[in-house]
Design a protein that fits this description.
Strand order of the largest sheet: 4-3-15-8-9-12
Order of helices and strands: EEEHEEEEEEEHHEEHEEHEEEE
Distance between the termini: 44 Å
Strand content: 25-35%
CATH topology: Fumarylacetoacetate hydrolase, domain 2
Shape: globular
Structural class: alpha+beta
Radius of gyration: 17 Å
Number of domains: 1
Number of helices: 5
Number of strands: 18
Largest sheet: 6 strands, mixed
CATH architecture: Alpha-Beta Complex
Length: about 230
């Protein structure tokens, strides 16, 4: 096959302990999957059906020093467990959902909160608040073969050494198997898809010069410094 233009590079994420890399297909994000975060955003945390939004694959970048995003005066961090799908499928049985998981990582769902709020108020889509360039810093993936399928453990992020968000993976409203099964009713999941599983309470703004350090017990860590 020949292309009429040069295709964009394939986005990849390193895999801990492996020479090969994980090719990213799509990034799906579960909204309001921790009750305390739902409350702090002004929503009822009752167990309503989950909803999803997406980021483009090339939003995924490793940690390190990144340029501060433009077009925002209120950039927020949201630390999340990330599920890496290794085997695709549609209408996946919840009991077999974990068979589709290749591994896990920790990621930051960076959000232009001021844009998101404005778009919501106007009844417009808010992809530009979530799916901008480099909006998903992510750690290397660790395989499920090595760590199993974590269901509990501390997940948190600090900014300039001060803890801002902290929670436990067992506080998710919708578990990883439930989220996989539900999402697969609406789209056929593909190898290389990433699922961000929601964030605990404590989201806060960051500015140029700030350093964020996210950790997920048993999974990994990611550090991002925004250029001053």
């Amino acid at each position: 096959m020949s292309y009429v233009i040069e295709p964009a590079p394939q986005t990849t994420v390193p895999v801990a302990g492996e020479d090969g890399v994980f090719p990213v297909c799509r990034i799906w994000c579960v909204g309001r999957n921790y009750a305390d975060h739902a409350r702090e955003m002004g929503h009822d945390p009752d167990r309503e059906p989950p909803f999803f939004f997406s980021k483009p694959a090339n939003a995924a970048v490793p940690g390190g020093t990144l340029p501060f995003p433009g077009q925002t005066e209120d950039l927020h961090h949201e630390v999340e467990l990330v599920v890496a799908i290794g085997k695709g499928g549609k209408d996946i049985d919840q009991a077999k959902a974990l068979d589709h998981v290749y591994g896990y990582a920790i990621g930051l769902d960076m959000t232009r909160r001021d844009l998101q709020g404005g778009f919501k108020k106007a009844g417009r889509p808010w992809e530009l608040a979530k799916g901008f360039d480099e909006s998903c810093p992510i750690s290397p993936i660790v395989t499920a073969a090595k760590i199993g399928h974590p269901t509990q453990g501390k997940i948190e992020v600090s900014v300039n050494g001060k803890v801002q968000q902290t929670g436990d993976m067992n506080q998710m409203i919708w578990s990883v198997p439930e989220a996989i099964a539900f999402l697969s009713r609406y789209v056929a999941l593909l190898p290389g898809d990433l699922i961000m599983t929601g964030t605990p309470a404590g989201v806060s703004a960051v500015k140029p010069g700030d350093t964020m350090h996210g950790t997920c017990e048993g999974v990994g860590e990611v550090t991002v410094t925004y250029k001053g």
